[in-house]
Amino acid sequence: MAYYGEENFTFTPSGNVEVLTKIPEFYYRRYQDDTYEYIYISKTQQEGYTKSEEFSIGRYTMSGNATRVHSKSGVAPLTNTTITNFRTYARNLGEEFGQLDYHYFILQLLYLVEYADYNSQIKLGPGYTNSSHTGPIKSGGCDALGMHSGSVDGTDNSSMIYRGIEDIFGNIWQFVDGINIKDYQAYICYDKNQYASDKFDGCHQAVGYANSNANNQWVSKLGYDTIHPLIAFPTETNGNSSTHMTVQYWSQSGNRIALVGGSWAHTLRGGLWCWYVNNASSSSGGSLGARLLKIN
User: Fold this and answer.
1) Helix (H/G/I), strand (E/B), else coil: 257
2) What is the residue extent of each domain of the chain?
């Protein structure tokens, strides 16, 4: 194992080695009142705060094939398979591995505390999202930035990166595991060993609000539940491309799974709060992919 900056570190490892970004443990608190949302993070325990355990996330979207998946530079993302298959491929690396899940909400919190602005495409760059694109770009476009955030050229023809996580939005949609939606009601599970699509009981608990039933609309408000304060799905869609969340949201009735971020053809509609809960668990496609997660 080598860390960025050490002599033997490489963005393109060979063999059974993956490039991951470590998120240290910390404590957080999120709540809302009638006017504002409040987010706090702390290195040490504070009254009313919840601990986020250390975890590592793929610097790059998942690549490879059904035999062996990776997180490394210079390769095309793996697409055209289902959330269930990605779950299996990730677990084949070891019991500590999975795909992106509720930890995505942790990354949103960290970004908000740092930037205090929901318009992530303005703050970090638009990502690879120009509507003229016809497919995803290879990983590694932000290697020159190291662990910095932003974009190499600031255009929608190149990748972006947030704190060592390249294409956290744009390029391809990313499955978010452990979340199932039934008729706009989200169900969340926090135990990766129990993730299962189209499951709405047991580990999968209903969040205390319903998601917006809008489709292809601009997000203006996020939900809040005191039991699940981390989980923030769109509940109102009264915004536009320059107000409120500045991202779009897609949904349908029935049993759905969650994807996030936007893809290579989404122009300024994507971003950190761009959710797509339109797809069934059997869905796959050339713009749908995944990202490794490792619970340390």
Assistant:
1) strand
2) 20-296
